[in-house]
Amino acid sequence: MTDTAQGTAVATDGRRRNDQQDRASFYLTGHRMDTHLGNVEGLGLRSAHFAPYRRLTELRYDYPLVLADGPDVHATMWSLSGLVDDLLAKVATGEDAGRVRHHAIELEREIRVRADAGPTRLSAAWEDAARALLDASIGGPDGEPDPELADSLARLTAARTVDGELVTCSHDTPREVVGHLWGLVQRERERHLTARVAHLRDDLQDILDAEQASSPAGLAGERLAASLGPVVGDELDTDALSRMLTDKRPRFTLSDSRRARVRRLLDVLTTQRFVPSGEEGTDTAPELYDFVYTDVQAALAAHRERFAATTELAKALVMAEMEADGRYREETHDALFDKWSVADLDTDTLELFPEYLVRVDAEAMTSEDSVALLEALSAGLPIKALVQVNDLLRGATQQARPAEAGLSARTLASAALASGESFVMQCASSALYHARERIVAGSSAPGAALFVVYSGEGEWLDDLPHYLAAAAAIESRVFPSYAYDPAAGDTLAERFTLGCNPQPELDWPVRRLTYQDDSVQRVALDVPFTAADFWACDARLAPHLALAADDGSDGKVVPFAEHVASNPGAWTGELPYVLMISRDERLHRVLVDRPLIHLTQRSVEQWHRLQELGGIHNSHVALELARMRAQLVAELAAGAAASTAAPAPAGAAGEGAPEVVDNAEDHVDEPQAHDPYLPWIETARCATCNECTAINDRMFKYNDDRQAYIADPDAGTYAELVLAAESCQVAIIHPGQPRNPDEPGLDELTKRAEAFA
Amino acid sequence: MIDLTHRSAAECLLRLHDERLEIEGFQKGVPRWCAGCGDNAVLTAAQRLLRDEGLRPEKTVFVSGIGCSSRFPHYMNTYGFHGIHGRALPVAEGIRVARPDLNVFVNTGDGDSFSIGAAHWIHAIRYNMRMVVMVHDNQIYGLTKKQASPTSPRGTRSNTTPRGSYLEGLNPLTVTLGVQNVSFVAQAVDWIPEMLYDILQAAFHHDGLSFIRIVQRCPEWMPDNFDRYLHDPSRVQLLHHPSSLSISSSLASLYPSHLEHDPSDIHRAREIASSTDPIPVGILYHDPTVPRYDEIIRSEATHSSASVRRLLDSEFDKFAVTGGGLGD
Ligand SMILES: Cc1ncc(C[n+]2csc(CCOP(=O)(O)OP(=O)(O)O)c2C)c(N)n1
Ligand code: SF4
Ligand code: SF4
Ligand SMILES: [Mg+2]
Predict the structure, then answer these.
(1) A701 by DSSP, 3-state: which?
(2) pLDDT computed for residue A752 by the predictor
(3) What is each CA distance from A109 to A116, A129, A210, A479, in whole angstroms?
(4) How far is A469 from chain B (nearest CA, A)?
């Protein structure tokens, strides 16, 4: 043995001795006493779950979105892929559908590249992409573009009617998407209010005009002549007419108070600053209010400041309506309206008013902001708040939260949820497209609404795309998506939905990872997407991670989910790991310490509470089920006891054995028993040969795997069943017993069927 | 209002824009095969494979020659090439070279590939270009109404052999296994859909030419031909191995005869292949390391758009394993 080799052996021995200590120390505190637990910093680790999604531009997914122009709130947001599929459904129908489809997908990819490069409109990116594709298809120096490509692109372009901003998944996406959808709802509101104001202004003006028209001035000879026009001309003595109309006739006049009131109402409608009042372009046009804010308190202050103006306009609208209908009675209504405030107005009227949108970063909110927002939510103020979360770690641990900071966004959402009075939605940018109808619902909900959206932003995520970070936050249950809509019904089941969390019945969704092992074999593993997989991508948590040694010298390591399931937090000599990929595309086991486990456990507990709200593993239901089960078992046992005590008539007992309840789970491996009377097919063995379906395609049908089953035993005769059984090459059709006792030839058929019993 | 609780939306995360098609998406027309024809089973297996693998119709091509079985491409809603008699393989090879981004499947009959197309068969095996070749072997010329084919068993009475064929039938498995560069050989029977599917799937994942002989019933012209296997399941021998296919418990109880066979052992494979009763069903031979001609000739041209495409495809399989091996 050489000196060096000996030295290595000694070092290894020393290392072994320290191993246990080192591992325990890392596990319990994250401190490394020895250095051999590999540092993960600088490796650019990200969860192995992301492996298939590294080249997002190459893939078809929701982004970019098209924020479409046009007023229809429900057709206003498209995913580019969805739009292309929609166009294909219209255009790619003939013989050449495959070719058009192929070109469309190429076009889509080119557009996606352009969207990623910077803000653009769909039409611009589309034209540019189409031109690039055509140019690339030109063969020689003076060649022509591929005519088939040109044809496909022309057809697709002609079919496209949608245009709008292309939005990729980035820091500003939650802002833009919520702003866009809210804006449409807001515009709809404004349109209604504008129309109503204009209409009432006309009505009020008519009242004033009518008085004017029937006044002596209004009925003066020259006015009458002007109103009759030149055709009548001199033939009519308008002065005489004026005398006839004004002499000794009752006159339509407004009381002074009514005239003053109508003028005042008109004035309110004209000078209000909520919506355009038709005076645009004139010097007197009032400056309109702004309703979009980036500061909760500023929005609330604006709402408070405009309280008087809101009351005034709302009152004016109701009074003007009564005036126009002639229903306003001073003696009763004056006193009533004097005392009115916004609180007395009907919700229909208030719903017409523009609402406030606040878009704020959770990290920028102070504790005053949080309190103010929560109060606004439970008071049902007309405010829709988007709280964008960029840093999920903030608020997740005490250390990570500055003292003066407001509530963490997640806490904000759960507090709002607990109050139960306002619309609450939580999701991440990756799911915005799927949540679009929810966002519209929240924007149009009466009262306040809170949208909490995680953006996937953060330098601590390295260069992980926002889309993946956001999707991972939902997948890992660190930031589950859910929505609560008090307008959807009276019960929690109607109001609450768990959104688009995958595999909601599990703690963590399970994904299949495929990779190549040392011997270049494809290996597939089902791995849960745990909270640790998410947090491990956060560079700030790197001290809580360690690279497992290549040679397995780190002792016992177990998959993270397994570890927390069997042992939440005590040191038992094993280290949990998650699978991660480094920048050089190698797969690593990355060890996780206990503080990080605690972090993940908190999100699991929160997830369990959400599951219960969403009706999954509901503890009340579980208790009730257990109670009912016990009761049933007791009843059955009592029945069985009674029947043994006094032998009951045959058939009355027997079926009543208590274990019936658990039957399904206990005997899964036994071959399924079949009712000997019913016809059936051993579907899994069907070779799709079309024999039976050719005999009767209503009786025999194919399932999703194109294997035959009996769809309707009464859709044909017993003779057909027997014939099919005989024709079936694999003899898997069992005709059972005849169902119609009057069918001719049953004796012979039953005999033939015996072979297939 | 969309329902966020709906499954499709529930799967929205990390899920790409759903490109997958249901089986109907791969169906086209109504097959003109006789009722009971085993070709139907192959069609279904192929359609299920495309669905389950999430293949795109525009990225897939089915090539065939002439015969009943060769009508296959007409019933697949993908690209297709219904070629000339015996020439399915050269056409498929051309496609493979020109469009390496496509998934190439070949459907051919025993007459198509072992009589008129025999030369192409041998060379295609040797060239080992990536494609799945399904030979529907009904041991007869079906389309032309019953003439003996090279695989017809001795004594087969047909229009060309009214007194019964004189020669012993050709065993396509042993021949294929004797060709240089052979990389994947399997045998399936149309009436065990589960095995047919599993074999087809393994063949699809093989990086080279996968040759599957599918024993196919022709109830029209050879009605009793395979009855001995159909009526006595113990005469079908299922091949299994940890490195190959496994047999489900339901299948194992129906077909009692099993044989553990390591498909990397070519000598054993030839031995098993020579048995016609019992008839082996499963993967006989598999060697993923055999070089592919379609790759060799393109290796210079790393700048073609096609090779870029291939590189992209291979990205997903690219990462190696560290951390003491995960396979344990
Ligand atoms: C060059 C040429 N020779 C002969 C034929 C006639 N022909 C058509 S199909 C066929 C045999 C097909 O047999 P097989 O490949 O086993 O297909 P099957 O119908 O059995 O599925 C023949 C000889 C032809 N179409 N072209
Ligand atoms: S006859 Fe038998 S094998 Fe054919 S389709 Fe019907 S059940 Fe399936
Ligand atoms: S003739 Fe034979 S091979 Fe051709 S379709 Fe009919 S049953 Fe099938
Ligand atoms: Mg044939």
Answers:
(1) strand
(2) 94
(3) 11, 9, 65, 30
(4) 10
Asked whether A175 and A452 are in contact (CB, 8 A), the reply is no
- Check whether residue A147 and residue A270 sit in a common domain: no
Domain termination site, one of A124, A149, A168:
A168
Q: In Å, how far are A365, A385, A424, A429, A451 from A361, measured between CA atoms?
A: 7, 11, 17, 14, 12
Reported as type and span, the H/E element at residue A66 is strand A65-68
Query: Residue A242: which domain range?
Result: 198-344
The predicted pLDDT at position A595 comes to: 85
Q: Does ligand 1 come within 6 angstroms of the Cβ of B226?
A: no
In-domain check, residue A542: no
DSSP state letters, B111-132: HIIIIITHHHHHHHHHHT-SEE
Q: Shortest CA distance to A178 belongs to which of A405, A421, A338, A389?
A: A389
Q: ipTM > 0.85? A: no
Q: Is residue A275 part of a domain?
A: yes
Residue A79: closest C-alpha in chain B:
B17
C-alpha torsion sign, points A654, A658, A662, A668: negative
Average pLDDT in chain B? 87
Residues of chain A with confidence (pLDDT) below 50: 1-11, 17, 646-671
A101-160 residues touching B, CB cutoff 8 A: 101-102, 105
A487 to chain B, any CB pair closer than 8 A? The answer is: no
Q: Does A483 touch chain B (CB under 8 A)?
A: yes
**A49:B14 CB<8 A:** yes
| Residue B291 Cα to chain centre, angstroms | 20
Whole-model pTM: value is 0.57
Both A147 and A239 in one domain: the answer is no
The verdict on A160 and A209 lying in the same domain is no
As for how many domains chain A has, the answer is 3
A319, A344, A369: which is the final residue of a domain?
Answer: A344
Nearest to B37 among A669, A689, A727 (CB): A689
Q: Look up residue A393 and give its DSSP letter.
A: S
**All structural domains of chain B with their residue ranges:** 14-318
B14-318 is a CATH 3.40.50.970 domain: yes
The answer to whether the beta carbons of residues A394 and A599 sit under 8 Å apart is no
Helix intervals (H) in B206-304: 227-231, 249-254, 266-273, 293-296
For β-strands A586-592 and A545-547, DSSP reports them as antiparallel
Whether residue A723 is contained in a domain is answered as: yes
Q: How confident is the model at residue B18 (pLDDT cuts 50, 70, 90)?
A: very low
Instruction: Tell me if A525 is assigned to some domain.
Output: no
The rounded distance, in Å, linking the Cα atoms of B297 and B308 is: 15
Quick check: A701 contacting B, CB < 8 Å?
A: no
Distances (CA, A) of A665 to A424, A659, A673, A684: 39, 11, 15, 21
Angle subtended at Cα A126 by Cα A122 and Cα A129, rounded to the nearest 5 degrees? 140
Q: Which amino acid is at A585?
A: E
Instruction: Examine the pLDDT at B278 and tell me if it is beyond 90.
Output: yes
Encode pLDDT of A424-476 as tens digits: 999 999 899 989 889 999 998 888 999 999 998 888 888 888 988 999 999 89
What digits encode the pLDDT tens for the residues B37-83?
A: 999 999 999 999 999 998 989 889 999 999 999 999 999 999 999 99
Q: Residue A584 corresponds to which tokens in the numbers above? A: 């050089």
Q: Check residue B16 and give its pLDDT.
A: 37
Chain CA centroid to CA A536, Å: 26
Are B4 and B38 within 8 A, CB to CB? Answer: no
CB contact under 8 A, A688 and B321: no
Q: Which of A99, A434, A731 sits opposite B12 (nearest CB)?
A: A434
Which of A683, A685, A688, A691 most suits a substitution to test ligand 2, by most atoms within 8 Å of the C-beta? A691
Residue with CA nearest ligand 1 atom 7: B144
The partner residue sitting opposite A499, judged by closest CB among B4, B15, B249, is B4
